[in-house]
């Protein structure tokens, strides 16, 4: 069984069955042998963007979106102390998005593959599928 962490944008595309999700990403997350994970940090990021008017979900609310995740057998991965420490161990570089850095730390600390369109993750040595 492979475990994948789905980044925030890919998570929205997956849950809303949007065509923007690449064929390789869709095949991986649709595979019955794949354990699909979403970081609680992604839900936090979405809540902030909704509040700021930068994100609208087709489900209408983050609460309903979370129910959609459960219905799609996506497990929510809580942020641990080790994840927070792992963020501090990442190289500083150009990429400063705190949510992305946390996802990278979660992937590296747990040896997860990340489903993401964002090539910035490659600088951290994260296994990424798109």
Automatic annotation (TrEMBL):
<feature type="domain" description="PIN">
    <location>
        <begin position="4"/>
        <end position="124"/>
    </location>
</feature>
<protein>
    <submittedName>
        <fullName>PIN domain protein</fullName>
    </submittedName>
</protein>
<dbReference type="InterPro" id="IPR029060">
    <property type="entry name" value="PIN-like_dom_sf"/>
</dbReference>
<dbReference type="Pfam" id="PF01850">
    <property type="entry name" value="PIN"/>
</dbReference>
<dbReference type="InterPro" id="IPR041705">
    <property type="entry name" value="PIN_Sll0205"/>
</dbReference>
<dbReference type="InterPro" id="IPR052919">
    <property type="entry name" value="TA_system_RNase"/>
</dbReference>
<dbReference type="InterPro" id="IPR002716">
    <property type="entry name" value="PIN_dom"/>
</dbReference>
């Amino acid at each position: 069984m492979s475990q994948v962490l789905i980044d925030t944008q890919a998570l929205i595309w997956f849950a809303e069955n949007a065509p923007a999700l690449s064929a390789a990403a869709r095949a991986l997350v649709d595979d019955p042998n794949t354990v699909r994970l979403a970081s609680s940090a992604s839900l936090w990021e979405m809540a902030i963007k909704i509040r700021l008017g930068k994100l609208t979900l087709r489900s209408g609310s983050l609460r309903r979106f979370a129910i959609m995740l459960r219905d799609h057998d996506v497990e929510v991965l809580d942020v641990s102390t080790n994840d927070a420490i792992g963020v501090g161990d990442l190289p500083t570089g150009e990429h400063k998005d705190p949510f992305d850095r946390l996802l990278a730390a979660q992937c590296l600390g747990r040896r997860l593959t990340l489903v993401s369109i964002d090539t910035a993750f490659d600088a951290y040595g994260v296994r990424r599928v798109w």
